[in-house]
Amino acid sequence: MLLVARPGIRELTLRELLELAPARFAAVFRGTPVKRLKLPGLLRNACVVAGNVAAHAGAEHELVVLLLRLAVHASPVVRAHAVWAVRRIAGGSAPALLAGAREDEADPAVVAEYGGEGSFR
Known about the structure:
Elements (H helix, E strand, L loop, with lengths): L6 H4 L3 H5 L3 H8 L4 H20 L8 H9 L5 H15 L3 H10 L4 H8 L6
Helix pairs in contact: 3-4, 4-6, 5-6, 6-7, 6-8
């Protein structure tokens, strides 16, 4: 059957998606349409899922640590969505959690997410 999910993909957890390295992404998604999305696109989508499934869970939620790592990712799209997700999950604790990443941020879209003015809500 053409649309059967591949076992390696089906078992991936959200945590594993947020931790995907380029080599693992290439290996797992080789020959699939997800490969066209590229790793930053998949990470962006995973950040949105994390922000939605763990909304208002608090700064101690296990996904926050992974999202904080993505808040300094090379891709501004990933950084912006990671910041959005941390703010959505951690609420009032987010500014303190994100302070280190915020210091070096210059991309306007990402900076807007720090201020809560972004469009990913």
